[in-house]
Amino acid sequence: MITRKSKREVEMMQEAGKLLIKTHKEIAKMIRPGITTLEIDTFVEKFLASHGATPEQKGFSGYPYAICASINDEICHGFPRDEKLSDGDIVTIDMVVNLNGGLADSAWTYTVGNVDQVGRRLMDVTKKALYKGIEKAQAGSRIGDIGHAIQTYAEGEGFSVVRDFTGHGIGPTIHEEPHIPHFGLPNKGARLKEGMVVTIEPMINEGTWNSKMDSNNWTARTVDGGRSAQYEHTIVITKDGPLLITDQGEER
């Protein structure tokens, strides 16, 4: 069932979003060759606790960490680990913050040291694809409008759009209806209504869009070893257009 949030619920999610933004900005300062994603995971859990919040995905369906940390060819749900990040890697940090029952969800891909031109272009196209999808997140539009905008842009730039994982509604739990595919046809799917809160989180690959699952049954990676990037915002559908509650204030 698709739910629409009250003003109070949106305000709670906005407060969680503010903390999530702070957390990502602290992570950005940490990313460098030699750090491990397990160190980042430990930092995030302590940082959230110091602000009275918890990492919502820890324990969700048995997931054991505060963040997902997906490196290079890992599409999503990468486990934090002791392996040091290397110069030239790209790494996506995805997390859900629970602050007093309000949830906010955001993923961000970071460069580790000197990333090659193709990797940087992949990241740039993925971020632009996110915002092209957000532009279509208007009350009265349909879910397919979002996916179509993302797919046509990303594929037009020579990249592929992951099909196996989607955005979603959020609050009061991590994954709510509706699913938000990052591909599809315009004027198809459920209609967006004021008060809905969703995530848009395109995962864009260098090569084919197909994925395979690691033995941990969580981590998805590309079948051809190509790199994958992801950017995600939590968005409130309002009568005045999409309201980003995880906006870091970056240039678009």
Helix content: 25-40%
N-C termini distance: 33 Å
Content-based structural category: alpha+beta
| Average residue pLDDT | 97
Strand count, sense and closure of the main sheet? 4 strands, antiparallel
Number of strands: 15
Shape: globular
GO molecular function, one term: metalloaminopeptidase activity
Domain Peptidase M24: 11-239
Catalytic activity: Release of N-terminal amino acids, preferentially methionine, from peptides and arylamides
Cofactor: Co(2+); Zn(2+); Mn(2+); Fe(2+)
Tell me what the structure shows.
The protein is of the alpha+beta class. The chain has one domain: Creatinase/methionine aminopeptidase superfamily (Creatine Amidinohydrolase, Alpha-Beta Complex), CATH 3.90.230.10. The protein is 28% helix and 26% strand. The protein contains 4 helices and 15 strands. It has helices at residues 7-30, 37-50, 117-135, 143-156; strands spanning 53-55, 68-71, 74-76, 90-99, 102-111, 160-161, 167-169, 176-180, 197-200, 203-205, 211-213, 220-222, 228-230, 233-238, 241-244. Strand 11 and strand 12 (220-222) form a beta hairpin. Helix 1 crosses helix 2 (37-50) and helix 3 runs antiparallel to helix 4. The longest helix has 24 residues, at 7-30. The mean pLDDT is 97.
